[in-house]
Amino acid sequence: MKAFLILEDGTVFEGTSIGSTREVVSEIVFNTSMTGYLEVLTDPSYAGQAVCMTYPLIGNYGITDDMESGRPWPDGFIVRELSRIPSNFRCKGTIQDFLVKHNITGISGIDTRALTKILRDRGTMNGMITTNEHFNFEEIKPKLQAYRTGDVVSKVTCQEKTVLPGNGKKVALLDFGAKRNIAKSLNDRGCEVTIYPAHTPAKEILAAEPDGIMLSNGPGDPKDCGPIIDEVKKLYDSNVPIFAICLGHQLMALATGLDTHKLKYGHRGGNHPVKDLETGKVYISSQNHGYVVDTDGLDEKIAVPAFVNVNDGTNEGLKYTGKNIFTVQFHPEACPGPQDSGYLFDRFIKMMGGEQ
Amino acid sequence: MPKRSDIKKVMVIGSGPIVIGQAAEFDYAGTQACRSLKEEGIEVCLVNSNPATIMTDKEIADQVYIEPLTVDVLKQIIIKEKPDSLLPTLGGQAGLNLGMELAESGFLEEQGVKLIGTTAETIFRAEDRQAFKDTMEKLGEPVAASLVVNTVEDGIKFTNTIGYPVVLRPAYTLGGSGGGIANNQQELVEILTNGLRLSRVHEVLVERCIAGWKEIEYEVMRDANGNCITVCNMENIDPVGVHTGDSIVVAPSQTLGDKEYQMLRTSALRIIDELGITGGCNVQYALHPESFEYCVIEVNPRVSRSSALASKATGYPIAKVAAKIALGYTLDEIPNAITKKTYASFEPMLDYCVVKIPRLPFDKFITATRKLTTQMKATGEVMSICNNFEGALMKAIRSLEQHVDSLLSYDFCDMTDEELNEALKVVDDRRIYCIAEALRRGASYETIHNITKIDMWFIDKIKILVEMELRLQQEELTVELLKEAKRIEFPDSVIAHLNGKMSEDEVRQMRYDNGIVAAYKMVDTCAAEFDAMTPYYYSVYGSENEAVETKDRKKVLVLGSGPIRIGQGVEFDYCSVHATWAFAKEGWETVIVNNNPETVSTDFDIADKLYFEPLTNEDVESIVNLEKPDGAIVQFGGQTAIKLTEHLMKIGVPILGTKAEDVDAAEDRELFDEILEQTQIPRAAGGTVFTAEEAKEVANRLGYPVLVRPSYVLGGQGMQIAFNDDEIEKFMDIINQIAQDHPILVDKYLQGKEIEVDAICDGENILIPGIMEHIERTGIHSGDSISVYPAHTISQDIKDKIVDYTERLAKALHVLGMINIQFIAMDGEVYVIEVNPRSSRTVPYISKVTGIPIVDLAAKAILGHKITDMGYKPGLQPEADYIAIKMPVFSFEKLRGAEISLGPEMKSTGECLGIAKTFEEALYKAFLGAGVVLPKHKQMIITVKDADKPEALEVAKRFEKLGYKIYATRSTAKYLQDGGVDALQVNKISQESPNVMDLILGHKIDLVIDTPTQGHGDKTRDGFLIRRNSIETGVNCITAIDTAVALATSLESATTEYTLVDVAKI
């Protein structure tokens, strides 16, 4: 069946419908990872967005256990070509069936490179995926313009507290849409990880007397998370060591009076170089963010930059002055992407007084 | 870290002559690195024995020594030039080994020379089998159970503990020379004996066989600060068991999930970090197809063929970055040359798929076994880029220039299903075609996978192509079907052929009528995330075009020469690149089309635009439609480019330089005869034929022996000397196995001195840089002959005649640009053998030894400049003060079963130069450069045909005087003894031991002189077996008396003090 991707600026791509045929309006973003489409699909940070894979051959190894959450989150999945057969010893099914099962709309057969170039040049924009051949752009346009990702954190966070047992440090993980590998990375290092829903009051978390607090990644505009930011501020005020990733990093920044802004087209992929300003070493990181923390005129009394993006000089991490808090914009938990910055989990454990 | 201040002058070692396993990729890497060093203000002193390379140009380095790559020579150059640093990681295994030897001997330290780019320790830990194993064990990186052995007995003992089959890998050899898989003790003994001999340190690794696992490679970079990145990974479609150089390779990997991908990536980074490499490195893995188990196969701590491929596949210039790292820069300080916005400390993201297919030489060596093993056999490779795998595979196939254009190109129709099933088990260069045939017959993916171990994902892709073949055969060609066929890159010709009712022109017209045209996308290192500045394009169908047509300047299309194969080597890339530079200097916009990832011409900063595309009529036409060039230049890209002439003219592209009809006149027998008559130049009598009957008729009229050859070929492909009717039958049969559009030529064979000239003609005057003469008499292909400049044994009268004839021919053929002519001088007369109105393989060598920039001048002549205005006096240029000798280099040891005796069909893979003040020293250096390091045991075998016996006697006397003990077979021995040589008679192979074979296998023989009775191989004959066994046991084997005479001359004047010639100063 034919499907169409209609962008806010009137550009139309014609392709083939994959997955669900449900019509969706979403924010269109692209990811440049060459492997890891399944991790991308199941990364809750994509909630409220439709993701285009720039690598043209998708689904080659099918669906495996490599999932970062229980289900796929993007509103739409945009690919150049879906493999006819998946081939991998761990393969349990095809992307097509997976999308259908979870009612995710998709489109294949479009010029994903042309789409990427549009997003790069004109900035991230909203779009619609539809199978309706008789669409009228003028009617659709206001809908596209009105679309906001909104409070997607509430949609993706867990409903109940869960505990991953461990003999080491006790970590409270605030789930704003956490990828599984964050908890796993800590748990693998012996930590007992308690995963809290995003809206859990700081008081409740602190009452459990964790050795450290982990603020996870998550979807959407950090400024849409007002009440959470207030709670994060309380966590900041406690003296519990904190490590934050991505949205968690942005929320901590907002909580301490810093500002964030939207990037033209974000960083999504597995090849972004970040420089550790302490050592001068450059690591290749996994990234997925549309917003970034402003560090112009950063008050050193609050925080100092810890990492910077080698490509565009944007902030990639902060170290909070006088606090046991460090936060990063990129994803040390990888999945998908390079594992180079996994050492940060060790650093966190050390910060909590652990031995790693 | 900024640039180190203690590096001012760097010596770079090149990789020497092109041989199988070490080809043009090192010219690419070396050239790029030298330019990168010079960009930083570093003085570069280059040593490479290969004169055909771009890196040995005076534009590339400050001092250029085209000298034999031996430790002694390098030491003398170091003493003379006093570099402060040595960069050994750019010259392949050859360069690395030399760097290591110089370091190990303490010489570098003594001279105050730093090893940069790597350390001796790093090389040792990566290259020495045991040290490597220890390093991997320390890191906890798995390697296949293995043991380094120094004796066959130890090998047997170890194998008995781990079980057959085992893989054998000799240490410090290139292209896996001497390696293989042994399935039983007999094979083990055979391969191990050979491998121990070939290894520089007499070590062979015996290892658990992991054949059938996925073979995955990572290209990794690291700087002195410890920053590491991977440039890309690649997956071999052929599982472990086939050398990666002989495998079809895809980038990035297609069948690995992120878990597998990152697991191996992390491992590669740990390895490069542990080895402390500063620069580029290649790590090869075997990955179990049904688990996460993997083994590190090997690590190459240097740039390699794979790094060249990775550079072209991603746009990340590995050699350039490696050179900057060697100077002390860190990755985050080196700008990304493609985006110009980002830095080298990132990982390229591809939004397309790259396929590489090896170019195997079995069309040249019809007797050689086609089986692919862990020993590399390919002479070159092609690469293609598309946004789908099927398309990339189809484009790569038609880039091969092997008369293949689809998966139907090898015909398996005659095989029964059982035979086909058996054929699937054969791992050779036809395997994908065989799989396609099996799929056509309905074989299941499982069946094919179980036999070949090729991942089902790839089998499915082949099936998609097969399904399309069927649809094109059975269905009406609708617009939708045509679109789909083009999306997966079926050429119009194949579509027309399968359709059966439409011609290629009609298919093309249908495409144009429906707007189904190629679009071009950019290789930008970043999957479009950043705006790229470098126009490096590939074509796709059904997408938006991003290549912008530029109009401001005159635009020239330069057609490259495709894959490196015997007969068309790196020389033509040299010519293409220089032509491009020359046109750029004249203010033209330059557009290169080529498909060879190993070459300089496909580096994205050589021309203004690079199209990485197949060199076929259709693919070039698509580029022409977009670029609308003002002209195309075909005379520098060898036969590949020449073949495109007709079509270019048809689509209205002016051919710059000599016109196509004049090119035809040189190739077409009748037209050429008219020209010769008109210019009154003699040639050997001959005729044009199509059938064997006609050939025999002509041959008998002329009298045997005759030379039989197809027209419009390079490297004398299919050319043979026939002595009787039977041979004519046989040769015609072989020639006609490949469809002939052009007639076959039969000429009287004249045995005389062969002379060659390259000349430039501006339409009025000619310029001859120099006259070359061959050591070997006619009958041996010019590319396989030892060539001497200046010609020193011919009279002034002959020289005058040659100059005169060259001028007459150039004018009669209206040559504008290059012309190459081969002559025979016999009995005071000069005959023309052949005329090529294009650049030839001797151009780079003559340019370098005369200091005349031939391609540059030819390009200028094409653009209307006159020789007299370019500062040259027309005619033959004054002779240089040096004697320069071009020595052919062969790769016979890599090709089991190949006939090594020389004849009219070219067999050499590369060449080296000997340059000196005297003929003798030049000759000695040329042999040395070609790896003939004598004497060792001072024992030799002579077995020659009757006609050669008188001359063989003279040769034998000279070797006897050099202290050689001479063995000979019965009749030769008797002849030599009668002539006063103390020759020892040995038994023939069929006779009892000790016979001639025992002698050869006994490793005590320096040299075999064996002139074959026939110029072609009957595999059961003594001669063939002697020659093959000599080559396979590393014994020098000479098959022409003239070559033997030259070797005697060279050894008589052996020296250890060399005249070192900086050719940059000529």
Outline the structure in words.
Chain A: It catalyses: hydrogencarbonate + L-glutamine + 2 ATP + H2O = carbamoyl phosphate + L-glutamate + 2 ADP + phosphate + 2 H(+); L-glutamine + H2O = L-glutamate + NH4(+). Chain A: Composed of two chains; the small (or glutamine) chain promotes the hydrolysis of glutamine to ammonia, which is used by the large (or ammonia) chain to synthesize carbamoyl phosphate. Tetramer of heterodimers (alpha,beta)4. Chain A: This is Carbamoyl phosphate synthase small chain. Chain A: InterPro entries: Anth_synth/Amidotransfase, CarbamoylP_synth_ssu, CarbamoylP_synth_ssu_N, CarbP_synth_ssu_N_sf, Class_I_gatase-like, CPSase_GATase1, GATASE. The complex is a heterodimer of chains A (about 350) and B (about 1050). Helix content of chain A is about 25%, strand content about 30%. With about 350 residues, chain A is α/β, with parallel strands linked by helices. Chain A folds into 2 domains: about 1-150, Glucose Oxidase, domain 1 (3-Layer(bba) Sandwich); about 155-350, Rossmann fold, CATH 3.40.50.880. In chain A, a hairpin with a 5-residue loop joins β17 and β18 (about 315-320). In chain A, α8 crosses α9. Chain B is an alpha/beta fold and about 1050 residues long. Chain B is built from 36 helices and 40 strands. In chain B, strands 27, 28, 29, 30, 31, 32, 33, 34 and 35 form a 9-stranded mixed sheet that branches. A 7-stranded antiparallel sheet of chain B has the order 14-13-10-11-12-15-16, with helices on both faces. A 6-stranded mixed sheet of chain B has the order 17-18-21-20-19-22, with helices on both faces. In chain B, α24 (about 660-665) packs across α25, α25 packs across α28 (about 795-810) and α31 crosses α36. The interface between A and B is large, with 54 and 57 residues.
